[in-house]
Amino acid sequence: MRSPAQNAQLALLLELSGTPKPGNVDRRHEYNDLRFEHFMAGAVGSTPGLLLAQQGAAVGRAFERGVVGMAEQRGGNTQFGALLLLVPLVQAASADSETALTPEPIEEIVHATTVEDACDFYRAFEHVDVGVDDPPPELTALDVRRGARAASTLRERGLTLFDVMELSADVDGVAREWTEAFPRSFRAADWIEAGDGPISDRAADAYLRLLASEPDTFVVKRHDHATAEEVVERAQAALDGTITADDLATEFIRREINPGTTADITAAALFLALEQGVSV
Description:
Pfam family, one: CitG
Radius of gyration: 18 Å
GO molecular function: ATP binding; triphosphoribosyl-dephospho-CoA synthase activity
InterPro entries: CitG (IPR002736)
Number of domains: 1
Protein name: Triphosphoribosyl-dephospho-CoA synthase
Helix content: 55-70%
Structural class: mainly alpha
Oligomer: single chain
Distance between the termini: 12 Å
Number of strands: 0
CATH topology: Triphosphoribosyl-dephospho-CoA protein
Largest sheet: none
Shape: globular
C-alpha cells in the first residue's frame, strides 16, 4: 500500500503523463525550454518535502524543502503551485489514514499555519523563479519576490501562511483552494474516480473540465483577463467536440498560453482520487 507521500509523487507524475492538456507540458507536448523531463525531475526532487509533510513537519518547512528539491533541474519552476496544494493534503492524509480524506481536517491544517510557515513560504521563492504580478502599493513590503527579506514584515504584522493565502485568494487559484477548503480539487477528484479507462486519461479529461469551468489565474497573470476568458471558451469547445483537444494543445503551446493553475489543481485532484482508492 502506497503512503501519502508516495501518492503525492505519483499524482505529480500522473498529472504530467495525462494528454492532451492544452497549454501544459505532457508526454506529447512541451516547450523548447520547459520539457517533460524537467517535470519528471521536479516530481522526483520534491520527495523530501513530501516525506516531511507525511511525518507531520510544519507546512512551510515541508513546502520549502519540496521546492528546493523540485528546483534541482534545468527547466525552472515545474510544480511550485502543485506542491503548495499537496503538502497540506499529504499532512492531512497522514494524520488519519483510517478514514476517507475530507475537507475538514485539511481546513484545520491550513488554518493552523503559523508566521514561521509564512516565512518559509517566502523563502521558497528564493529557490526558483515563479511568475507573479506586482502587488498593490500597500503590500509592497509583502512582495513574495523579496523572499526571506519579507520575514521581518511578516513577523511584525503577525501574518500566518493562511493569512498570506487570503491576501492572494482573489487573484490566485491555488490560494483560493487553500482558503475555501479545496473545492475544485475535490470536485475534480470525483470526476477522476467516476471515470473509465487509464487514470492519466481521466486526469486529462478532468483538466479540460476544470479549464472550461473558470478562468485560469496563471493565464491572467501571464496574459490578461480577456485571454483567460478565451481559454475557457476554447476548452468548452473542445469538450463539445467543436475542436479537438489535441489541436487546442498545439494552439496553446504555439501561443505560449500555459494554464498552470489548472494543472496544479489537477495534481491535487489526482492525489485525492488516489487516497480515495482509485487504483493504478
